[in-house]
Automatic annotation (TrEMBL):
Pfam families: Oxidored_FMN, Pyr_redox_2. One of its GO terms (molecular function) is iron-sulfur cluster binding. This is NADH:flavin oxidoreductase. Keywords: Flavoprotein, FMN, Iron, Iron-sulfur, Metal-binding, Oxidoreductase. Its cofactor is FMN; [4Fe-4S] cluster. Transmembrane segments: none annotated. Residues 396-629 form the FAD/NAD(P)-binding domain. In the N-terminal section; belongs to the NADH:flavin oxidoreductase/NADH oxidase family. It comes from Lentibacillus amyloliquefaciens. It comes from the Bacteria. The keyword Metal-binding applies. InterPro entries: Aldolase_TIM, FAD/NAD-bd_sf, FAD/NAD-binding_dom, NADH:flavin_oxidoreductase, OxRdtase_FMN_N. The keyword Iron-sulfur applies.
Amino acid sequence: MNTDHSATVRREFQHLFSPFQIGRREVKNRIVSTAHAPGFDSGLLNKRHVDYLERKAAGGAGLIMAFGSASVYKYSSASYGSVSLWDPENEQLLEDLADKVHAHGGLIMSQATHMGRRGDSSISGRPLQAPSAISEGIHRETPHVLRIDEIPPIIDAFADAAARLERCGWDGIEITSFSGHLIEQFWSPAINKRTDRYGGDLTGRMRFSEEVIEAVAEAVSDDFIIGFRMTGDPVTDDLGLDQDDMLEIAKRLDRLGHIDLFHISGGNAATYAAQSAVVPGDTFARSTYNHAAHRMKENLSAPVLVAGRILDPEQAEDALVNDDCDLVGMTRAIIADPELPQKTMEGELSQIRPCNACTEGCIGRLYMGMPIICTVNPAIGDSSLENFEPADYMRRILIVGGGPAGMEAARVAAARGHDVMIWERGDQLGGQMTAAVTAPERPHYGRHIEWLKRELERLNVDVQLKTTMTPDSLIELDPDKVVLATGSYPDILAAAGDVTTRCVTDIAILDQAVSIEKGDRVMVYDREGKFRGASIANFAATAGASQVELVTPLWSVCEDLDAMQKPELYRLLAENQVVLSPNQQLAGQKDGHLLLNDVWSGNERLVDEADLVVFVGYQTAEDALYEQVKQADPQLDVQMIGDAIAPRRLSDAISEGVRIGNTL
Ligand SMILES: Cc1cc2nc3c(=O)[nH]c(=O)nc-3n(C[C@H](O)[C@H](O)[C@H](O)COP(=O)(O)O)c2cc1C
Ligand code: SF4
């Protein structure tokens, strides 16, 4: 570390790294990892989750808002993979976790909630509970209507959870209403149709939240921080509450005098579109909810924390300078690089591994019922990829292929002390990512490749572009080990079959090898069912195609895409008037028409010949070099990674690159 340089950087980030008083406790800087459920637990907190949160504290975040949707009430339907705060069995690990975070100088608070109608009774085997029998747009399960005598035990459960956390050495609790949980359901005139003291006008609808806060305040000492999380911008009209209403609610809660920290964000879970705004993906504006937080800060006496697409330290500093907030949530940014605060402090900004805002590995997987990973940070899914042992002695490593898998392997091998060379036959690094980053819905997708390029340069990796490996060149180089990261290619012949219309792949269009002419009739045939089919259909429509039909043999368009990425793609498909044709198999051509077969009935449909058929999902492993290398030197240690083994996701390419780099 260059001390002068880091002092300058600290000046640049003087707000971000200034301590701050929350209630009676001081947090060392303004960077917060906000509550997020990683899907690691099933009620009982486990060591993996403890290590995961400790890692964030070790990386320098001032405040760790732990867990996500941690349930206070035994008889509510907990969310998938969350922690049960009501369960005394968690106490030992709660204590351990608090000790570990404190040892790194951080504060730790826990989110605490009852999710009400949000959830699925199949997870807990218990009915959902809500103010009224109105189901949520996402889960669509009719809840049990809470009788008036069933409400006080829930209020007590919030208080018990707070008392437990304080007993276990925690710094505070974050009561949450956020993203459609029970407290917010009580507030909403569209959801709460009660006629008792917990319904009716705003005073009645706020009673439950106020009683929860009063009970929590009663249960803990004045030293214990009481935080409250809510949406400042619901994004949807479905709640019957707008930004003014949320401000009014916050003001009334503030006046109770118990809340030490308001945590403001946006979105809501009443609809798919509003839910996707809760963890805003790459088409949302950066600093998505600073406007809502700013307004709250102007009107509330308690300090304000904001969360929503704050990706970089510069953006975080700006939020503080602009008085949008007092503390800054950088949740995904810290998932992608837990050392972001530390690296910022030390002036190593260019070394921060950036979140590419894909939402695919983290929240996307969670909403598909899987524990989170991070597309760009494989250590989240496999902690053995966190630390690298220095190599026992320096070897000469040749990596063939400069896509994400090869670049990651090179980065890690070089960081461990090897002499590393990449041979890439194209004229730039990035592999298929060079095409993928041109998708307009993903403006930040290329950040990881840019970071890898910087790291390869810093680590003195020798990158040779426009270099094709031949047996002779290999023998001449005489490496100790070879890694084949040659990727995959779209197999247009396999895709096109009997179709004789102009056939291309989405990659050819994104690479600008093929262009869409004004007025072209385009059919996209997507057998993959993820992001690419819908994205290229939108691309074609905006590039001037006169009509675009998106055909897939799957149940639905974007069948296997998570609920966070789908809404924006669907919105654009609708806006671009793309015709959606699921359950249709492209069977060839007949009488000058394209022939589609209905997957279920077998009925034929003839559609007017398109000018262009774009195939998505026909990647084939580029693995031919393996045999060539083996023939050239049978003794050579050769390994394959990424798509060259089998075409898969970006996260697989990255994690395989890191794994192999760590074993060379
Ligand atoms: C994997 C994941 C799970 C999340 N789970 C929760 C949750 O349980 N409760 C909650 O209040 N927010 C949850 N969030 C939202 C985050 O707290 C935060 O508001 C959001 O990620 C936006 O901040 P960012 O842009 O800094 O990531 C989750 C976010 C992610 C990425
Ligand atoms: S999975 Fe994607 S959005 Fe989530 S933290 Fe990692 S890079 Fe960011």
